[in-house]
């Protein structure tokens, strides 16, 4: 069994596709736990995990540490609120040109009042007020949140299908 990956770069024209040659999928070789260093987190951008998830993660980490694996808790540097705000702005910005100006003003005024402290709705309100320069600035704000290369699709194929 092999795997082929197709990528689209955010830095080149959209009709450019990169193809990685097939990679054989073989079982991973066994490595002693004493040689492994694992970083872990139960906090992904401020999202709360369930008590069961926390308990199972703590149990797994303790089990790995007992067997000699070096473990360390590390927080992920990810701003979830910024991601929601930027997502709301970019999603809404696609529809803004067809929304009449009075409705854009009304939405930009009421959204923050109706949905206080909700980043996605703050992004919608921002999109209703911004022009092309605001859209470009929001795209720039998005860049640190997403990897340079976006995985568009991963397709597992047999080499005979290529």
Q: Please bin the fraction of helical residues.
A: 40-55%
In whole angstroms, how far apart are the ends?
12 Å
Quote the average pLDDT.
Answer: 76
Number of helices: 5
Q: From the helix content, strand content and strand pairing, which structural class follows? A: alpha+beta
Task: Give the spatial strand order of the biggest sheet.
Answer: 2-1-5
Could you give a short account of the major beta sheet? Answer: 3 strands, antiparallel
Order of helices and strands: EEEHEHHHHE
Total strands: the figure is 5
- Uncertain ranges: 1-10, 148-162
Radius of gyration: 22 Å
Strand fraction equals 15-25%
The gross shape turns out to be: elongated
Summary?
By secondary structure, this protein is an alpha+beta fold. The chain has helices at residues 51-66, 80-93, 101-114, 119-129, 132-142; strands spanning 2-9, 18-24, 37-40, 70-73, 149-157. A hairpin with an 8-residue loop joins strand 1 (2-9) and strand 2.
Q: Which tags fit this structure?
A:
162 residues, 5 helices, disordered C terminus, three-stranded antiparallel sheet, alpha+beta, disordered N terminus, two-stranded parallel sheet, single chain
Give an overview in words.
- This protein has 162 residues and is α+β, with helices and mostly antiparallel strands.
- Helices cover 41% and strands 20% of the residues.
- The chain has 5 helices and 5 strands; from the N terminus they run E-E-E-H-E-H-H-H-H-E.
- Helix 3 packs antiparallel against helix 4 (119-129).
- The chain is elongated.
- It starts with a strand and ends in a 5-residue tail after the last strand.
- Residues 1-10 and 148-162 have low confidence and may be disordered.
């Amino acid at each position: 069994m092999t795997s082929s990956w197709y990528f689209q770069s955010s830095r080149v024209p959209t009709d450019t596709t990169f193809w990685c040659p097939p990679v054989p999928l073989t079982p991973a070789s066994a490595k002693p736990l004493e040689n492994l260093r694992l970083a872990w987190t139960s906090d992904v951008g401020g999202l709360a995990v369930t008590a069961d998830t926390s308990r199972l993660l703590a149990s797994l980490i303790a089990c790995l540490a007992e067997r000699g694996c070096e473990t360390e808790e590390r927080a992920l540097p990810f701003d979830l609120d910024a991601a929601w705000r930027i997502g709301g702005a970019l999603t809404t910005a696609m529809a803004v040109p067809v929304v009449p100006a009075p409705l854009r003003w009304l939405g930009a005024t009421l959204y923050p009042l109706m949905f206080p402290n909700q980043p996605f709705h703050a992004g919608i309100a921002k999109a209703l007020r911004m022009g092309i320069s605001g859209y470009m600035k929001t795209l720039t704000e998005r860049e640190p949140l997403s990897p340079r290369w976006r995985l568009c699709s991963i397709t597992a194929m047999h080499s005979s299908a290529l």
